[in-house]
Write a structure and sequence with these properties.
Layout (H helix, E strand, L loop, with lengths): L2 H6 L4 H17 L1 H26 L3 H36 L3 H4 L6 H31 L9 H27 L6 H13 L10 H7 L3 H15 L4 H32 L8
Length: 273
C-alpha cells in the first residue's frame, strides 16, 4: 500500500469541512431553502397552538395538557427536520447529478455521511428557532422550561431523524429518485406509533409492543412525565439511547453498503427515476 493510499483512507476533517461549507453555501444562497427549513415548524406551531387554546377552554384535561401538545409539536419537528436535513441534502446531490463528481474526488462515503448529519443539525436549529420564539410570544409556552431533560430529548430525536434520513438516502440511491417521497412518508408513517400527543397506553396492545421499540415513543413519554409530574423517568432515556444507537448503526451500515454497491455498478453516473 502506497503512502498516498494510506493517507486517503484516514478520516479527513478538511474534506468533511469542505462538504459542510458546500451545503452551507447552498443554504445561504437560496432563501427558499431557508424558508422551507423554518416553514413547517412555524406552521405546525401556529396551527397546534391555536388548536390547543381552543381545546383548553373545552376540556378539563387539556387545561393541564396544553403544554404537552405544544411540546409535542416542537419536539416532533426536531425528528422531522433531522430526517429531512440528511435526506434532502443527499437528494440535492442526486437532483443535480453531482454524486459522480463527488466520488471521483478522495471524498469517502463516511465523510459524506458526517457532513450530512452536521448539516442536518444546522438546518434543524435554524428551522426551530422561529417556532420556539413564536411559541413564547403567542402562547407563553417556553420549551426550555423542560430544563436539562430537553437536551436528552433533542439529541435522541435528532439521532432518530438521522437514522431515518440515512435509510431513506440509501433506498433512494438503490431504487432511484422515484423513491424520494420516502423522505416524508417514512417519518410520518411512524407518527401514530411515536405517541406524540397521547400516551402509548392509548394504542391497542399489539401496537404498544411496536411503539416501545421506537426511541421517539420513549422520548415523548418522558416529555409528558416531565411536564405533568416534574420528574424524568431515566428508563425512557436509557431505552431511547440504546434503540437509537442500534438504529443509527444499522442505517449507517445500510448507507455504506449502498454506496459500495453504487460505486461497484456505476450507479453514481446513471441515477434516474
Amino acid at each position: 500500500m502506497t503512502e498516498y493510499a494510506a493517507v486517503e483512507k484516514k478520516l479527513s476533517f478538511r474534506r468533511i469541512g469542505a462538504m459542510i461549507l458546500r451545503y452551507f453555501y447552498l443554504l445561504r444562497a437560496s432563501w427558499i431553502r431557508f424558508a422551507e427549513a423554518a416553514y413547517w415548524p412555524t406552521i405546525h406551531m401556529i396551527l397546534w397552538g391555536f388548536t390547543s387554546q381552543f381545546l383548553q377552554s373545552h376540556s378539563s384535561w387539556l387545561v393541564r395538557g396544553t403544554g404537552v401538545l405544544m411540546g409535542g409539536v416542537l419536539l416532533w419537528d426536531v425528528l422531522f427536520r433531522g430526517n429531512l436535513g440528511v435526506s434532502l441534502s443527499f437528494m440535492e446531490e442526486m437532483w443535480s447529478r453531482n454524486l459522480g463528481n463527488l466520488f471521483v474526488t478522495p471524498l469517502r462515503p463516511y465523510e459524506l455521511i458526517t457532513a450530512l448529519v452536521a448539516m442536518s443539525l444546522l438546518r434543524t436549529v435554524l428551522g426551530l428557532i422561529p417556532a420556539v420564539l413564536l411559541a413564547i410570544l403567542f402562547y407563553e409556552f417556553n420549551i426550555f422550561d423542560l430544563g436539562l431533560p430537553l437536551i436528552f430529548f433533542f439529541v435522541n430525536l435528532l439521532i432518530s431523524g438521522w437514522s431515518a434520513g440515512l435509510a431513506v438516502s440509501a433506498l433512494v440511491l438503490r431504487f432511484g429518485l422515484g423513491a424520494e417521497s420516502l423522505a416524508w412518508v417514512l417519518v410520518f408513517a411512524l407518527a401514530p406509533l411515536a405517541a406524540i400527543y397521547y400516551p402509548v397506553s392509548t394504542l391497542p396492545e399489539w401496537l404498544q409492543l411496536i411503539a416501545t421499540a421506537l426511541p421517539m415513543a420513549h422520548v415523548f413519554e418522558g416529555m409528558r412525565q416531565v411536564l405533568f409530574e416534574g420528574t424524568l423517568n431515566i428508563k425512557h432515556i436509557i431505552y431511547a439511547v440504546f434503540l437509537n444507537v442500534g438504529y443509527f448503526m444499522a442505517a449507517t451500515l445500510l448507507a455504506l453498503s449502498m454506496f459500495h454497491s453504487a460505486r461497484k455498478h456505476g450507479l453514481f453516473l446513471n441515477i434516474g427515476e
